[in-house]
Amino acid sequence: MRKNISFKLFMVTVFFFLLFIVTQLILQSLFFERYFIWRKTTEFETKLKKFEFQYYNYVDDWSKAIGLINEFEKNEDSKIVVLENDGTMSYITKYYDEKNDITKINDVKEIITKWRNDSNNAYNLKTATDIITYTVNNKNYDFKHLVCVSSIKKNGIQVKTIFAITPLNEVSDTIETLSDFYMYFYIVAFVISLILSIIYSRMVSRPLRKVTKTAKKMSRLDFSEKCEVTSQDEIGRLAETLNFLSANLELALNSLKKSNKKLKIDIEKEKKIEKMRREFIASISHELKTPITLIEGYAEGFKDGIFEDEEKDYYIDVILDEARKMEVMVADMLQLSKYESGNIELHIEEFDIIPLINKIIKKMSTSQVNDKKLNLITDFYEKEILVKADIQRIEGVINNFFTNAIRHTQQDGNIYVNIKDDKSRIFIEVENEGSFIPEEEKNKIWNKFYKIDKSGNKKFGGTGLGLAIVKNILELHKSTFGVENTEKGVKFYFSLDK
Ligand SMILES: Nc1ncnc2c1ncn2[C@@H]1O[C@H](COP(=O)(O)OP(=O)(O)OP(=O)(O)O)[C@@H](O)[C@H]1O
Ligand SMILES: [Mg+2]
Fold first, then answer.
1. Which residues belong to any copy of the HAMP domain (predicted)?
2. CA angle 327, 330, 331 (to 5 degrees)
3. What are phi and psi of 472, to 5 degrees?
4. Confidence class of residue 1 from pLDDT cuts 50, 70 and 90?
5. Residue 459 pLDDT more than 60?
6. Which CATH superfamily is domain 346-497 in?
7. Alpha helices, H only, 28-129
């Protein structure tokens, strides 16, 4: 059996309705007949008193008395019997339907005989100030007779006794009719109350079911559905509160999710920084080991005096060279670690890129370029090209591309510097003749400490930090950059916003 609210409401309604019917039936069977008889009695007594009052004046005038009696009997559907003091029935009417009258007269006679047989009655009547009323069960009928006995007194002496007898058949008739009526009434009322109870239990349970459905979704942290109950009653207010709760929960949950996401990102960032720090320490100790060992070895050589005088200058130069390299490496690494920790802010400004490139070319055109007899070929002639970038950091980028190009170009080779215009940005390309970069290395060269020639060959020098720094700077500028193998050699390029 479903234990839902509609069912409960329905059951309660049916229960109260049945209780009402049962109570009604009990009250009816207990009190209805009594009440009816009581009402009939009081009415009959009042009428009889009125009759007696009139009859009193005609006690000795029979012709007038008969008219009065006939009228009373007809109006009240009763029989009047006048009994003389000696016990003779001085009057009993006969009219119309003789057969019916005879049975009535027989009933009356029987009642009077019974009255007379009880000697107390006569005494009671003598002392009574009012009418004596009682009911008689008659074995021939299934109804009672109401009997009123009263004495007519003259000068305080009883002269006649009057019996007024009326059948109470209408009581049982009325009760029977009423029971019949109530049976139909109860059936109809029961059906109506059933239908009503179903309707109103649904009226209550339907919005509740809607609210429950939303609440269930909420319990699964799904706040997509809102209660659509719009009534102004308690259920409406419950739905409103639930909607309010749902909105608040969703808000709280979203903000919690957001903070959680941020926390995760922070933790990830922290982990990454920690990893970088470890890698940094590992790399730096590895990279610094070689020059330190070299410096240490040569310094000990000096101490032990194993070098010839003419060799001493060479070894001092080596020591100085290694120490300078270490200095550069440490500076590069510090710069790189700054970029990687994300604590760098760019100072973006608009400037002309041409003078910057020319400045770098001029600087480079000294030692190495001259030594190798390299040709620096540019495709731009003094025209102004404005870009928006951090000038100092872009100088670092171009510097690095140039140093690499110079390093990897063979004797008498060419280095090309081109600037290309592309709608909202410009591309700067540094191309050098020389060996290609294998396809699978193209991505790796941007990693720190990555060098294609892993033999530690002194030919190219460098620590593999240059392009890693360049990558960080260009990413901060949201630049498009990369490397390509060309017909002549290798081309590095990057874009800058105009
Ligand atoms: N123009 C180029 N031609 C050929 N290979 C290059 C060129 N530029 C860079 N590479 C390769 O990419 C590697 C990484 O370059 P990167 O600039 O990061 O380091 P590096 O030049 O060796 O050292 P650093 O720049 O720190 O002095 C180089 O070791 C080299 O193998
Ligand atoms: Mg380099």
1. 202-254
2. 85
3. -60, -45
4. very low
5. no
6. Histidine kinase-like ATPase, C-terminal domain (3.30.565.10)
7. 33-55, 62-76, 98-117, 119-127
Residues in contact with 340: Cβ distance below 8 Å, sequence separation at least 6, in sequence order: 273, 276, 472
Q: Which ligand is nearest to the CA of 491?
A: 1
Q: Is the CB of 467 under 6 A from ligand 1?
A: yes
Q: Is the CB of 405 under 6 A from ligand 1?
A: yes
Tokens 């590992």, residue?
A: 282
Ligand 1, closest atom to CA 492? 1
Neighbours of 215 (CB within 10 A): 16
Burial of 286 (0-12, 13-18, 19+ CB in 10 A): exposed
Nearest residue by C-alpha to atom 5 in ligand 1: 437
Nearest protein Cα to ligand 1, atom 19: 464
pLDDT digits (tens, 9 = 90+) for 285-327: 888 888 899 899 999 999 998 888 888 888 899 899 889 988 9
Ligand 1 pocket: which of 329, 364, 400, 445 to mutate (most atoms within 8 A of CB): 445
Residue 91 has what DSSP assignment? E
> Closest residue (by CA) to atom 28 of ligand 1?
451
CA 473-477-482 angle, 5° bins: 70
Distance between CA atoms of residues 479 and 494, nearest Å: 6
Report the distance separating Cα 365 and Cα 353, nearest Å.
18
Terminal alpha carbon distance of the chain = 79
Q: What is the DSSP code string of 110-136? A: HHHHHHHH-HHHHHHHHH-SS-EEEEE
User: Check: CATH 3.20.20.10 for 5-176?
Assistant: no
- Per-residue model confidence as pLDDT tens digits over 182-220: 889 888 988 888 888 888 878 888 888 888 888 898 888
Atom of ligand 1 nearest to the CA of 452: 31
Domain spans, the chain: 5-176, 346-497
Choose the residue to mutate in 404, 429, 432, 490 for probing ligand 1, maximizing ligand atoms within 8 Å of C-beta.
Answer: 404
User: Long-range contacts for 108-112 (Cβ within 8 Å, ≥24 apart)?
Assistant: 108/79, 108/81, 108/163, 108/165, 110/138, 111/136, 111/145, 111/147, 111/163, 111/165, 112/81, 112/83, 112/163
155, 165, 101: which is closest to 131 by C-alpha?
165
